[in-house]
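Section 3.1: Structural characterization of target chains.
Under the original work plan, the team committed to producing a structural model for every single-chain target entering the pipeline before any wet-lab resources were allocated. The record below documents one such target. The sequence was received from the expression subgroup and is listed exactly as submitted; it comprises 424 residues.
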Amino acid sequence: MNKMEIVTTIGMGYIGLPTAALIANSGMRVHGVDVNPKVVEAVNEGRIIIVEPDLDVLVKRVVEDGYLSAHLQPVEADVYTIAVPTPFKGNHEPDISYVLAAGNAVIPLLKAGDLFIIESTSPVGTTGKVRDLIYSKRPDLEGTIFIAYCPERVLPGNIIYELEHNDRVIGGINEESTERACEFFQKFVTGELHRTNSKTAEMCKLVENSSRDVQIAFANELSIICDKAGIDVWELIELANRHPRVTILTPGCGVGGHCIAVDPYFIVSEYPLESQIIGKAREINNYKAFWCVEKIKNASLQFQLKHGYEPKIALMGMAFKPNIDDLRESPAKYIAQKVIGSEQNGILLVEPNIDSHPEFELSDYKNAFDAADMVVYLVAHREFYSLPKSKNKLVLDFCGVTNKQTEDLEAVRVESAVKRSVNK
């Protein structure tokens, strides 16, 4: 059986790069592949162009030690991992063309004994389609290579730690592939490896995020109901969660990111009649962002009628979740676009985790808060908790910044510091 000494990872994004760096840190030689020359150049210089705690230090070290390099084209290896996007096409239909293209790119390089792993979030049956694609072009490889699916389970902002310590679900096209993939992941993952088949592993990833989406939808729907009923939703949730068997999540301005806001559609598109709750949850969470836009516009109009001039509005946060720079599928970004419209006059947009944006002018969060007549909290970034609870401003809080207690904030800071020290 071939050794697993050289790995080619296709896709150097939010998952591919941390995964490649972690594999390289275990002593395997990794060739990262990306279509973006800027990404390749940055990695080869030991730099990163995304925000992720501790990733910069890890990448710099493994590049300098010669275990990680980046390329525009795949390099022959013993193991191939695929971490490319799976976007939408048409009416929220999953597009696996990037996965198939990655498979096509390495087909000429494959040899007997190689291991091929898909990590990209994919609709059920994708691994089988890639297997069929490989065998159709290389029938000589049938029964001689190992093919498996193993989705990531990570939280942006803590990816390095979770890639190493979280349990993994691994499903091969046969038992031999599953075992071979487990042998590979055991080299750099300390979490438990759970064996299954490729279809179950694919569905597991989709179900995990769909479950979260449904739970968040309940909280978001509750926030809309409470607003109409004149009830403080934050107090209500705190009281309800005192029940030993009730855990209501925190509402927000919607759901974003390339997992929870996307993965449920992979199920709905394939099983539209059967996925009633999953589909409705997506509708609710999408509607919440629209609802927030209407609340902001109505509050601005009321301010103008009362004071005789349009308020200067600070929109606080653009990322899809707190303390990261990732704007993919972000409801906060959608809200900002709808509120700003064609001109940004009178609106201060804040995102402390990025330096610039091609579409908007960004403001410092303290300056924006001081200058604004109306402060709208869209994302609960840690910086915002230090801002005063001013009674002289109109505040719309869609993420609970003004409802958190000081001890809660301190607990978050301590937990974050502990995790960073563990990663180092």
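The two ends are 35 Å apart (CA to CA).
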